[in-house]
Amino acid sequence: MKSRAEDFKCIAKSIKPSVHTKTKNAILAHGDSLELLRKIPDNSISLILTDPPYHATKKKNIYGDTLFAQDQHYLEWMNEYAIEWRRVLKQNGSLFCYCDSSMSARLEVLFSVEFNILSHVVWTKPNEPGFDGWKGKMKKESLRQWYGHSERIIFAEPAIEGNLHRSPFGEFLREVRKKSGLSGHQLTELTGAYGKVNHGGAVSNWEAGRNTPSRDQYKKICEVILGTGKVDHMPPYEDIIRVFKMDGTKEFTDVWNFPSVRPYKGKHPAEKPLDMLKHAIEACSHEGDIVLDCFAGSGSTAVAALSLGRRSVSIEIEEPWVEGISERLKAIEKLDEEDLANLEKLPPAAPQDILF
Q: Which partner from 49, 151, 190, 286 sits 20 to 30 angstroms from 268, CA to CA?
């Protein structure tokens, strides 16, 4: 696997003047995330999980939520992020971007220039018993529309032109196959990757971007391609195939039912539940991968990433929240592996206002 540790060092160096706190596996930078994002090296991030201002909600206690007078100005701003996210993500990386339901369609169209939109996730924000939040206070008959009790998450991968589904792996496989001098049929024959319908088999589907090979299939592809002597190097599976680990025991549909974070002293107004963040990170990254959050807020994305053995890069513009994240990172650094993997099970004596 390409050294994530080396990528991590390069990122820290690239934004060093703005780094507020650095631990073994976490970087916290204070400043405008778009400016700092432009300094991060190309293809150095495995997963972007971020929660930008929604704009449509116009909450004065969320930085940037009231910054734009018109929707188009907000979309132009978000487009600048999309361009930079595409640049810093690895070819097999993933993006999760939270947004308001009223802006999600326009953001999907905007993001589709740089990304393949894989899922439009609906987070239903169910309430725990005895806590209705605004849902219980609204005068329903005065709404004139259905009450908005969900948020959206756009899930996407980097796109590249050249094949039917704009798949980076599909384009890579086509290029190395041609360089090796093999036809699609020959590679199919040598790897045994026959399809159930046509003789072109899995290779043609992989190159079109319809799907990707398993670890064993990719191993055979590497053996065949390298065996021609015309290709010097094939990247490890972890560096070329987008991660997606899921099974039926988890929230595997595009409707997520993670309860909202209950109010507590010092809570960030847009704080997301730790379990939901861990769900996304665990499904779409390997241990040691680098997870980026450009709008860190309370720092929960970093907490989730670190608890799963990932590295985190957090950027936050508001100083009070930077200080809060810093305290969380310092507290986490003192935990042993067992406590780190079970943050939600820490005893009451743990600093709750810091960790949660």
A: 286
DSSP codes joined into one string, 190-213 = HHT---SS-TTHHHHHHHHTS---
Domain ranges of the chain: 4-160+244-355, 168-240
* pLDDT of 131 above 70: no
Which helix (H) or strand (E) is 227 found in, with range? Answer: helix 215-227
Give the CATH number of domain 168-240; options: 1.10.3720.10, 1.10.260.40, 3.20.10.10, 1.20.1250.20: 1.10.260.40
CA distance 167 to 91: 9
pLDDT at residue 343 in the model:
67
**DSSP assignment letter at 265:** T
> Are the folds of 4-160+244-355 and 168-240 the same?
no
Strands (E), 222-280: 255-256
Summarised one tens digit per residue, pLDDT across range 185-201 is 999 999 987 755 555 57
- Tell me how many degrees the CA angle 24-275-159 measures, rounded to the nearest 5: 75
Order of strands across the sheet with 311-316? 19-22, 26-30, 311-316, 290-293, 45-50, 89-99, 151-158, 115-123, 255-256
Q: What is the mean pLDDT of residues 112-132?
A: 87
Confidence of residue 67 (pLDDT cuts 50, 70, 90): confident
pTM, 2 dp: 0.90
Please tell me the CATH code under which domain 4-160+244-355 is placed.
3.40.50.150
The residue behind tokens 């159930």 is 196
166: left (phi over 0), alpha (psi -120 to 50) or beta: left
